[in-house]
Write the structure tokens for this entry.
Amino acid sequence: MSNDMNRVTLIGRLIRDPELRHTQGGIAIGNFSIANNKSYTTTGGEKKEIVSYFDCTAWGKLGEIIVEYGKKGRRIAIDGRLQQQRWTDKDGGNRSKVEIVVDTFQLLDGKKDSADEGTPPPATPDYEPPKTDSNPFGDDDIPF
């Protein structure tokens, strides 16, 4: 069976401080929600805005980092995948919820308050980009 594509990239603002919890096995889970705004103008010239809210989950060290540095109102870029959860409620009804499982994130504004302790470490702690000492292309090879 093949894997289908499932990628989400969003920029928005944290609507509340992220919350940290742990699995029974001790794995950290950071839960947070973001608001994503879309502005448009109607054919009559009226300006409108649509706000969408998305629940997000970050696992492990990534979850710990977002809880430590993410604060309500901060602008954030996230990249991840959609995941649907299904369950039966107490009345026997079928319920479902789609959330974003975050693979990477970046805080985009420099908003600081007394609780902040500076700039967060990279949002993908296990990834280190390859190091290059020089440009492998000559200046004439670059099209801009």
Notes: Residues 124-137 have pLDDT under 50 and may be disordered. The first strand starts at residue 8 and ends at 14.
